[in-house]
Amino acid sequence: MNKVLELKKVSRTYSLNGEPLNIFKDIDLTIKKKERVALVGPSGGGKTSLLHVAGLLEAPSSGDVLVKENLIDWSSDRVLSNHRLKDIGFIFQFNNLLSDFSALENTALPYIISGNSRKIALEKAELLLSQVGLEHRTHSFPNQLSGGEQQRVAIARSLINNPSIILADEPTGNLDFESSINVINIFNNLVDEYKCSIILATHDSNIAKMQDRTISIEGLSS
């Protein structure tokens, strides 16, 4: 099974003041196992919407999405939740860490939600946090962490369920250049170690060049 994610003739249309607004149309995209792909394009060009469709957070207006060669049934909440928990990791620009949870608890949470024991979840979370260089910050809360440290927690969290693919939406958008490069180096090394794929949306050409392949959302959409 070499194909982790496929989009086939996928379109997304919203309604604006009663008029259709095409975000993207008839996109074909295949992500292979262990492939790192940078998705580039202008702000407001549809990168986030594409990641939401690819991550099964919202249904396309038309077209098909396949995860690990399984055609997604958008009518089944169980199927969608199962794939999101077990096959897909997410990293957002604003990291979405829970403010009342420590770095350790934030990292462990998806594994606990998947039905695993809290003890094992915390052990896995501690290992992942050490792999992103935060073994000394496990009990710190998000507001006690720098922006780069928060994104490293988000990287650890995204990997805890051993996903097939991670979708990262401008993960360094709020960081300075040095922190951005540091975070992406850690990210790339870990996804190589965990043998998963990435789609990383970015407007930063330096970050894009650090991936295996760069694609433009404008080039994908017909």
Give me the secondary-structure topology:
Layout: E1 3-16, E2 19-32, E3 36-40, H1 47-54, E4 62-67, E5 70-71, H2 77-86, E6 88-91, H3 103-113, H4 118-131, H5 147-159, E7 165-169, H6 177-194, E8 197-201, H7 205-208, E9 213-216, H8 217-220
Parallel strand pairs: 3-8, 3-9, 6-7, 7-8
Antiparallel strand pairs: 1-2, 1-4, 4-5
Helix pairs in contact: 3-4, 3-5, 4-5, 5-6
What's the short version?
The protein is an alpha/beta fold. The chain contains eight helices and nine strands. The strands form two sheets. It has a five-stranded parallel sheet, with helices on both faces. It has a four-stranded antiparallel sheet with strand order 2-1-4-5.
Q: Please give the number of β-strands.
A: 9
Task: Count structural domains.
Answer: 1
> CATH topology, which one?
Rossmann fold
Number of helices: 8
What's the helical proportion of residues? Answer: 25-40%
Can you list the strand order of the major beta sheet?
A: 6-7-8-3-9
Describe the 3D structure.
Strands 6-7-8-3-9 form a five-stranded parallel sheet, with helices on both faces. Strands 2-1-4-5 form a four-stranded antiparallel sheet. The chain is globular and about 50 Å long. The two termini are 28 Å apart. The model has no long low-confidence stretch (mean pLDDT 89). With 222 residues, it is of the alpha/beta class. A hairpin with a 2-residue loop joins strand 1 (3-16) and strand 2. It has a single domain, classed as P-loop containing nucleotide triphosphate hydrolases (Rossmann fold). The chain has helices spanning 47-54, 77-86, 103-113, 118-131, 147-159, 177-194, 205-208, 217-220, and strands at 3-16, 19-32, 36-40, 62-67, 70-71, 88-91, 165-169, 197-201, 213-216. The longest helix is centred in the last third of the chain and has 18 residues, at 177-194. The protein contains eight helices and nine strands. Helices cover 37% and strands 27% of the residues.
